[in-house]
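ok so for the tutorial part 2 we go from a plain amino acid sequence to predicted structure tokens. step 1 is just haveing the sequence, like this:
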Amino acid sequence: MGELNGRARQRIALGVEYDGTAFHGWQTQTAARSVQTTLEAAIGRVADHPVRIQCAGRTDAGVHAEGQVVHFDTHAQRSERSWVLGANVNLPPDVAVRWARAVDDSFHARFSALARHYRYLILVASTRSPLRRDRAVWTHRRLDLARMREAGRALVGRHDFSSFRAVACQAKSPIRDLHYLELSETAGLIELRVGANGFLHHMVRNIAGVLMKIGRGEASTEWTSELLSARDRRLGGVTAPPQGLYFVRAEYPPVFDLPRVPDAPR
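step 2 — the prediction. this is what the tokens look like for a chain of 266 residues:
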């Protein structure tokens, strides 16, 4: 508990879900619709004062979130239920607050996170799916899941992911600990799940693009190891499209006692 504009302040954490299709990414932009601006406007109405939100992980245009975590500071006294219901009344249909929790001042949605988890969906079908056009990336070409799994094993662990980061990535270090990489397939829908202590800009989409190329037989299963050794984004292949990517959740120390919402259905 501190002060905001000379009044007693508390920090509130929220769990947020959104469909990124109609947003130009998370971050506030001057002339484009963003998740951050939309949330700040809705929560500011509940708080009755402007708020500034910090998030666990910024998402690009078209990228979705099932369990984004944000925090803001406020001097408004509201129940956790009131934050959820009040925010959702003021939010458009493509974004919603799923839970609220009063937290200690030491909590930070970005810097307190121990790990982040993403998934990427690939639809393998002879024809495109209108229902999944904004929810998964479609390919009519067969993908060899066994080859993709073999190639993905090389990425697990602590590595320099320079070949898998965007050219404009501003992270100070390309070193990341990839905790796991899992691939599964159900009825033609391939799901790539990854978790790490942190991700570089476009890292998951670049991993997905590389594995899809390997799955099509256009590169060897050793290509992932070669790219890690090369540490050169120019050799890293195509960045997979954004609509298949989902920010699943962030992990925090148990002391903060944040709710864990079950993963959203496909």
